């Protein structure tokens, strides 16, 4: 723009907006309705909502930390108690998913250690390798050879057969 501006051509807006003067002394009905609405509807609703939010802030519920109560094992269920069978099966499935996640987390930690250590992984990640071996052995002992359609009953039978084999091995070793 040129140095010498023509102030008449380019008028500067006023610095303050003028307030219109009231022509009458009668209050505006819109202001009255707004005030009534604020006191009758908005204020109580806001008060109740803030009170509820304060109560909920005291008792926070974290859905991702849900804790299920432990139910009796399948071996503790009475004969014909189908609800107990169902609950034990659901508990077994949750336990299996938790054990799968434990194995996955330990495997992920070992992979991260191997990536981080590079050529020194065998030396510096020995603790993770040992932990992964323990976790996978425990998972394999409990859930191995059950397949996709494994149930709490087949898992219990597998553990029973393994205990019987261990008992026979002890008796043969002591004789």
From TrEMBL:
The keyword Acyltransferase does not apply. One of its GO terms (cellular component) is respiratory chain complex I. Keywords: Electron transport, Membrane, Mitochondrion, Mitochondrion inner membrane, Respiratory chain, Transport. Coiled coil: none annotated. It is a peripheral membrane protein. It is found in: Mitochondrion inner membrane. The keyword tRNA processing does not apply. InterPro entries: NADH_UbQ_OxRdtase_su10 (IPR019377), NDUFB10 (IPR039993). It comes from the Eukaryota. Its main location: mitochondrion. Accessory subunit that is involved in the functional assembly of the mitochondrial respiratory chain complex I. Complex I has an NADH dehydrogenase activity with ubiquinone as an immediate electron acceptor and mediates the transfer of electrons from NADH to the respiratory chain. Belongs to the complex I NDUFB10 subunit family. This is NADH dehydrogenase [ubiquinone] 1 beta subcomplex subunit 10. It comes from Ceuthmochares aereus.
């Amino acid at each position: 723009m040129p140095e010498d501006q023509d102030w008449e051509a380019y008028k500067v807006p006023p610095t303050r907006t003028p307030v219109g003067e009231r022509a009458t002394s009668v209050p505006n009905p819109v202001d009255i309705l707004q005030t009534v609405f604020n006191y009758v509807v908005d204020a109580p609703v806001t008060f109740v909502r803030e009170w509820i939010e304060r109560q909920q802030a005291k008792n926070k519920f974290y859905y991702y930390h849900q804790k299920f109560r432990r139910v009796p094992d399948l071996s503790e269920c009475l004969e014909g108690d189908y609800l107990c069978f169902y609950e034990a099966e659901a508990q077994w499935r949750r336990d299996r998913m938790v054990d799968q996640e434990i194995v996955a987390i330990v495997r992920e930690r070992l992979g991260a250690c191997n990536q981080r250590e590079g050529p020194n992984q065998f030396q510096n990640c020995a603790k993770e390798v040992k932990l992964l071996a323990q976790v996978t052995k425990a998972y394999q002992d409990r859930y191995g050879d059950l397949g996709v359609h494994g149930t709490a009953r087949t898992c219990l039978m597998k553990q029973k057969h393994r205990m019987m084999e261990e008992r026979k091995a002890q008796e043969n070793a002591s004789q």
